[in-house]
Design goal:
about 250 residues, alpha+beta, BirA Bifunctional Protein, domain 2, SH3 type barrels, 2 domains, seven-stranded mixed β-sheet, five-stranded antiparallel β-sheet, globular
């Protein structure tokens, strides 16, 4: 596998900035960091800035979950934006990353609400959005070149290479930035429709938490801006999108 050297990344990514100029205004390329989320804050990144790492050693996901160090086989980047409604940001990034992956794979993918991109129930990409003060920092991790996994991930993770797609990380980064930029500018109804077409959670049994309440049942439908409708043993309930998290999910 030929890997484009890091010193050639900046020129290609600056071309994305030149063609965008609205959502993506500057790309900062670093060789290694524990987390691009933390690096963005440490470097004083502002709205429109993107931090891209050749290697991320200690990335994190939602609920404190760890994103595995995939050395030089994955994409790790963070995009800085002004703070906004968390439901809208989660929706736009999920649709944007899904669109980028579909472009690379030339096949449909699923969105497991709210932040996982999946193919045949195996995770291909994840998104973490953290807001503090006036800034939102959206971290994106994408599996690109992996052909083997640790035992605990072998049944739940997949990469572009394993799905037969080109495994150039720089092409993947460009696709993600362009697609996310487009999604962030789409109206809500277009994003909701795009999500619904890819919804990989509705119909599944799941355990969810909203505040101190834990709910187990079948997810009937999802409006990513409004909430989830779940059928439980005691009836149908609606859980708000902004404050609900998935604790566990079984197969559909």
């Amino acid at each position: 596998m030929y890997m484009i050297p890091l010193d050639q990344w900046k020129e290609r990514l600056d071309a994305v900035v030149a063609s965008d100029g609205e959502v993506i205004r500057r790309v900062i390329v670093i060789r290694e960091t524990a987390s691009t989320q933390d690096a963005a804050r440490r470097l004083g990144a502002q709205p429109g800035d993107v931090v891209v790492a050749w290697r991320q050693t200690a990335g994190r996901g939602r609920l404190g979950r760890r994103w595995a160090d995939t050395r030089e086989d994955g994409v790790a980047l963070s995009i800085v934006l002004p703070c906004g409604p968390p439901e809208r940001l989660a929706l736009a990034f999920a649709v944007g990353v899904a669109g980028a992956v579909e472009r690379l794979l030339d096949r449909p993918v699923g969105i497991k609400w709210p932040n996982d991109i999946v193919v045949e129930r195996r995770k291909l990409a994840g998104i973490l959005i953290e807001q503090s003060g006036a800034l939102a920092v959206a971290g994106i991790g994408l599996n690109v070149s992996q052909t083997t996994w640790p035992k605990e991930l072998a049944e739940v993770a997949v990469s572009l290479a394993q799905l037969g797609a080109p495994d150039d990380r720089l092409d993947a980064i460009v696709a993600v930035l362009e697609s996310v930029s487009t999604a962030l500018r789409q109206p809500d109804d277009v994003l909701v429709e795009a999500f619904t077409e890819r919804d990989a959670l509705s119909g599944a049994e799941a355990t969810l938490r909203n505040g101190r309440e834990t709910v187990h049942g079948t997810v009937l439908r999802i409006d990513p801006l409004e909430g989830l409708w779940v059928r439980t043993d005691s009836g149908e309930v609606r859980l708000p999108a902004a404050t609900t998290t998935i604790l566990a999910q079984s197969s559909r």
